[in-house]
Amino acid sequence: MQLVRDTFDERISDIESYFDLVSNLERAVGSGGAVFDVDGLGYRVKPEQQKIMYSGIYLHLYNLIESTISLLIDAVERHAAEGINGQLTLLTENMKKLYVKSVASPFESLSNDKRFEKAIDLFEQVLSIKPIELKIPPGGGGNWDSQEIKRLSNSIGINLLLPRNLNRKINEKFRDDKAPIRLIKEVRNKLAHGSLSFTQCGDNHVASDFRKLIDIVKEYLSFIIQSYDDFINQQGYKIPAAG
User: Fold this and answer.
1) In this predicted structure, what is the pLDDT of residue 140?
2) Domain ranges of the chain
3) Residues 6+ positions from 49 with CB-CB distance below 8 Å
4) For 99-110, what is the mean pLDDT?
């Protein structure tokens, strides 16, 4: 889990550094214009450029969310594989279901030959003919919001009971009638797919809005990381020992 925390801290540092730039640029523009000396000439930051920089915060935040969830999935997979030491019968029902889904892909549209290959793969792993590949189907790539994170966590066996104050922050409308994490996901997807320009995205924003958004995401993901850490430390992926 140290890798998760270290990566999280690095991404937070990136975001804070970027926000510091955007915030100070906003102050400079508000004081009469942000002007840089470029080869002896004054270069004034344009309003459109300021909007583009605002948009970048959404991308930074989604990058933080997706990287954190991906690393948490990897951590559960790694610790569970080590914890059961090849004994699939030790997995909880939740983890068994995820394991079978990852190997057999029962809900995917596959050809008969491909489905047969996967059945053989599952057969050989269960009988220890080949090493077990314990994977968790993520399912939320590109679409991680609080609901998808909750769905994933529940499927693993992690019940995310957010503290009341944090739960309120995560679920109340933040902008455009959307809660914070959903807003970040949808803006990121619109930017990525080209349905929203960076200039349009940054319109009608101020740095203080992003300060609140950054703090909410930091608090939320810190709670998620701790919940997964507790799950791993308590070997929640493994059925309790008899007696």
Assistant:
1) 57
2) 2-86+142-150+163-233
3) none
4) 79
